Amino acid sequence: TQKGCPAETASRAAAASNEYGLPFEYLKAQFNPGFIGMTFNFNGKIIHVDRGSQAEREGVYKGMRIAGINAHPIGINATKSKISSLLDDCIVGRSPFTITFEVPPPAPLPVLVPSPPPPDRGSVPAYLEGGEGGEGG
């Protein structure tokens, strides 16, 4: 295996699809060496972004997944140590680098079901509306 931050190239792996069979949307974010300000889990899913960090300024948010570092694709089965190794080499390097993130699909909108109207507690039943005894006199 080659050590160091993977070189940026123009090639890109074929677009993946999400659990709905729709293509993922991606965010390509440019970073400078040094502190990035994000934490990810075992498969590259972002679980925290520090306020004011490079990651926040680039639009990274919780729920995205690291899909590539420069042009090196990061598969869903990549280990945290593999991702960390690639990132660490870029962070301590001397050149800006690109991280590509999969943007999660938007949450489905809730379905609003209209409620039945509440009973009108201010109305008087019709049989009580005619005064006393029901007949005028």
Describe the secondary structure blueprint for this structure.
Blueprint: E1 25-31, E2 38-40, E3 46-49, H1 54-57, E4 65-69, E5 72-73, H2 80-91, E6 97-103
Antiparallel strand pairs: 1-6, 2-3, 4-5, 4-6
Descriptive overview:
The chain is rod-shaped, with a radius of gyration of 29 Å. The protein has helices spanning about 55, 80-90, and strands spanning about 25-30, 40, 45-50, 65-70, 70-75, 95-105. It has a four-stranded antiparallel sheet with strand order 1-6-4-5, covered by helices on one side. A two-stranded antiparallel ribbon has the order 2-3. Helix content is about 10%, strand content about 20%. The protein is an alpha+beta fold. It starts with about 25 loop residues before the first strand and ends in a 34-residue tail after the last strand.
Summarize the structure.
This protein has two helices and six strands. It is of the alpha+beta class and 137 residues long.
Spatial order of the strands in the main sheet?
1-6-4-5
Q: Please tally the helical runs, counting DSSP H or I stretches of 4 or more residues.
A: 2
Overall pLDDT: 80
Structural class: alpha+beta
Shape: rod-shaped
Question: Largest sheet at a glance?
Answer: 4 strands, antiparallel
Query: Termini distance?
Result: 106 Å
Radius of gyration: 29 Å
Q: Could you estimate the helical fraction of the residues in percent? A: 10-25%
Q: Low-confidence segments, ≥5 residues, pLDDT <50?
A: 9-15
Strand content: 15-25%
Helix and strand pattern? EEEHEEHE
The count of DSSP E runs of length 2 or more, i.e. the number of strands, is 6
